[in-house]
Structure formats: structure tokens, C-alpha cells
Design a protein that fits this description.
By secondary structure, the chain is mostly helical. The chain is built from 19 helices and no strands.
């Protein structure tokens, strides 16, 4: 997609200053039209389980783990940049490329793992919606079906632009956590010092939370969604600078929100001796005696918005990947007649997620552990595929990974993979020792 015809650009450059200003304004709005996939994908990672993880980090270890966000930002930018670059250059989604380059068997195995993991996370998002609504005294048996209806109607009946705009608007709810952090009145000097000063500990729980932070931030569904979204917007190589900017802006915003969640819980719960948090709803309730009801409701609003956003993005990412892997039509601009498998998968996932989440006494922690383990096994495989594909000159041509970029990408892949597998090992060990 070319932002402006080249001849028109040349004429405008030779034109008087008022016309050159028009060119700048046009480009600005064109840039805004392209922004979206990177921001939505990164923010969808701050879902109910992510908020619970960030709350647990702040409550358990105060500000001491804030330094982890710097390498997290760099890693997520590199991974998502490779995905959007592949989408722009090849015009294909990640599952499409995996099927073509690695064969049907590997694709089927990866898609099965992605389906299991995403289904578990989708259920947890509905649990998050239920918990957030009950913090306001509203029954989950009202809010969960209502959420299903709204998201289904938005995705199935809406256009690609409308869905993206609504998802972007949902991202604004994360500012609740910024306000909550300032209400907590943290020591900003200590926050700044912790952010730039790495601190290491041999404590197994400390290492576990480092692994959990990275595993929560870099997840398989985000990479699938961001590449498929770029493909659906039909961008070309001339859009690469803006697509990269979208990835960087989205990552910075999402990681900043996650850091504010850690700061708010560190400044309130940790300093007041509340060090164990088992869910985002528990964190919100724990705010009341320390920071008052306003902080609790801000936290609850953030949880509701985050769960709604992830509840829309996760089924879409799964529907994109499965449809691509099987060679079926897909896309938000397609009707049910044009893409029945794509819309059918999306519908089935949100219905199953809602029904299971409404079962009384659903073992949420065990569900998240299983999901985390499947994601932990899938992420290394997916990262290796992404680096191999984006570095393949036959596919990417002159836009393939450069030598230095490739070294950096492989380093991130190895580190994240080792941490993911270590996280699985810790989870399995906890299951046998508990």
C-alpha cells in the first residue's frame, strides 16, 4: 500500500509551503491508519493471567524485578518485528509459511499445541471478566454471556477497520493502572533505580518470577495475530517503517502498563506485608484497606478491559492460524458464507470458553498451569521457526535478517526458550511436591 503516488509527492515538494504542510498532514493520518496490529497484539498480552503475574511480582518482590522489563522490551520488539516483516514481504500468515516450509506434520503439531494453549487462556479471560464484574457486585452469569454476545457481534458483523478501532479503544482502559500507580504514591527514586539496576538472587521463587514475566510477555498467540493482521491490511514493503513503528509503540506501551501494575502493587501490597496474590481479583481486593475503593475499582476496570481485549484477540489468533494451516479462507472482512471455518472456529472458542468459565469451582490455577506448560513447550518451536523463516533469503529476499540482527534474534530465542523450559520444569516439580 503506497501512502502517496511518487509523482504527487515530487510535485508537492516543489509546491508552496502550505501544500507541503498538507503533505505532512496526509502522511500523519496515513500513518495513523496503518498503526494497530502491533499495539493490539502487545496489549492483549496484558490479560487476566498477565495482570495476576505482574501483581504477584510487585507484591512478592517490590520494585526489585523492574529491571527485567528492559530486556523484555527489546526481545518482544525483535520477535514481533520479524513477524510483521514476514507478513508485509510475503503476504502470508505465520501458519501459512510454516506449512509451506516445514510440512504438514510440523504444522499440525504446532497448531494442536496452539489450540490447546489458547483455549485454556480464553477460559481464563472469561474467568477474569467474571471476577472483575463481581468486584462491582454484578453476577458473572450476566456479564459473561453479555461479553460473548458483544465480542461475537463485533467480530462477525463488523469490518476489519471497526474491529481494530474497538480493540485500540479497549487498550485505553490500561491507563487505569497508571492512575492506580500514582494513587499508590511510590518512591519514584527507588523505582528508577530498580529499573536500571539488575539485581539477581539464587532464590528459586525469584528466578521463577523472572521466567514468568518473560513467558507472560512473549506468547505464541501474539506473534500469530500480529502477522495475520498485517497481511489482512494488505501492506507492502513501503509500509515497513510504519509497521515497525507500530510494533515499537505497542511494545513500549504494553510493557509500561505492566511495569505500572508492578509499581502499584509494590508500593501498596508489598510494603504492607501482602506478598501472596493468586489472581488479579485478589490484588484488587487487597488494595481496599491500603489505597481505598477507588484503587480497587480502577484495578477492576483494568482487569475487565484487559480480559475483553484478550477475549477478542485470542480466538481470532487461533482462528487465523488454524484456517491458514488448513488452507481455508479467513479474515474479518469475510462473511460466514465466504469463511465458514474461520468464523466457526472463532465462535466455538468463545462459546466453549464462556461455558467452562461459568462452571462453579473451576480450578483456575491448575488450568493456567497446564496452559503455561503448553505455551512454554510451543514458544521455543515457534521462535525457531520465526527466526529461520525471517532469515530465509528465498522467502524474504533483501528483507531477510542481517547477520547482526540474526545473531541477536538467535540469542533471544535461546534465552527465552531455556527460560520457558525451565518454567515448565518448575511447574512440574511444584505439582509433585505440593
Amino acid at each position: 500500500m503506497t501512502l502517496l503516488p511518487k509523482k504527487l509527492v515530487q510535485r508537492l515538494r516543489r509546491a508552496p509551503s502550505r501544500f507541503r504542510r498538507s503533505l505532512s498532514e496526509y502522511r500523519f493520518f496515513a500513518y495513523l491508519a496503518i498503526l494497530g496490529p502491533g499495539i493490539i497484539a502487545a496489549n492483549a498480552g496484558n490479560d487476566a493471567s498477565g495482570i495476576a503475574t505482574y501483581s504477584s511480582v510487585g507484591a512478592g518482590y517490590g520494585y526489585s524485578l523492574l529491571w527485567v522489563f528492559i530486556p523484555m522490551i527489546l526481545s518482544l520488539v525483535v520477535v514481533q518485528e520479524m513477524c510483521v516483516r514476514m507478513g508485509v514481504v510475503t503476504g502470508q500468515g505465520l501458519a501459512d509459511l510454516i506449512r509451506e516450509q516445514f510440512g504438514v506434520r510440523w504444522t499440525a503439531l504446532i497448531m494442536l499445541a496452539l489450540l490447546i494453549a489458547n483455549t485454556g487462556v480464553i477460559i481464563s479471560e472469561f474467568v477474569g471478566i467474571a471476577q472483575a464484574s463481581e468486584l462491582f457486585g454484578i453476577s458473572r452469569y450476566l456479564t459473561v454471556p453479555l461479553a460473548v454476545g458483544l465480542i461475537w457481534w463485533l467480530v462477525v458483523r463488523g469490518s476489519q477497520k471497526r474491529v481494530e478501532r474497538v480493540f485500540l479503544a479497549m487498550s485505553l482502559v490500561f491507563f487505569c493502572y497508571v492512575i492506580a500507580a500514582f494513587l499508590a504514591r511510590p518512591n519514584w527514586g527507588e523505582v528508577g533505580a530498580a529499573l536500571v539496576t539488575p539485581s539477581l538472587s539464587g532464590d528459586t521463587a525469584y528466578l521463577f518470577f523472572i521466567m514468568a514475566l518473560i513467558g507472560t510477555t512473549i506468547t505464541p498467540f501474539m506473534q500469530v495475530f500480529v502477522q495475520s493482521s498485517v497481511v489482512e491490511k494488505r501492506m507492502d514493503v513501503e509500509d515497513l517503517p510504519i509497521v515497525r513503528a507500530d510494533v515499537i509503540v505497542g511494545t513500549l506501551f504494553a510493557c509500561a502498563i505492566a511495569a505500572f501494575i508492578v509499581i502499584s502493587t509494590a508500593a501498596t501490597l508489598h510494603l504492607n506485608g501482602v506478598t501472596v496474590i493468586d489472581s488479579a481479583a485478589t490484588a484488587a481486593e487487597a488494595f481496599v484497606p491500603i489505597a481505598g475503593n477507588y484503587a480497587k475499582y480502577l484495578f477492576a476496570i483494568g482487569l475487565l478491559g484487559a480480559s475483553l481485549l484478550a477475549m477478542g484477540v485470542l480466538p481470532l489468533a487461533t482462528a487465523y492460524s488454524l484456517s491458514e494451516a488448513m488452507g481455508f479462507e479467513k479474515g474479518l472482512s469475510r462473511s460466514f458464507r465466504e469463511a465458514p471455518i474461520f468464523i466457526g472456529i472463532f465462535t466455538a472458542l468463545i462459546v466453549v470458553g464462556a461455558v467452562v468459565a461459568l462452571i462453579p469451582g473451576i480450578p483456575q490455577i491448575q488450568l493456567l498451569l497446564v496452559t503455561q506448560m503448553v505455551n512454554g513447550l510451543l514458544l521455543p518451536v515457534l521462535l525457531v521457526a520465526i527466526v529461520l523463516l525471517s532469515g530465509n533469503r528465498e522467502i524474504m529476499g533483501k528483507h531477510s535478517n542481517g547477520r547482526l540482527f540474526n545473531i541477536f534474534a538467535w540469542t533471544i530465542t535461546v534465552i527465552v526458550s531455556v527460560l520457558s523450559l525451565a518454567l515448565i520444569g518448575r511447574a512440574i516439580a511444584d505439582m509433585f511436591t505440593s
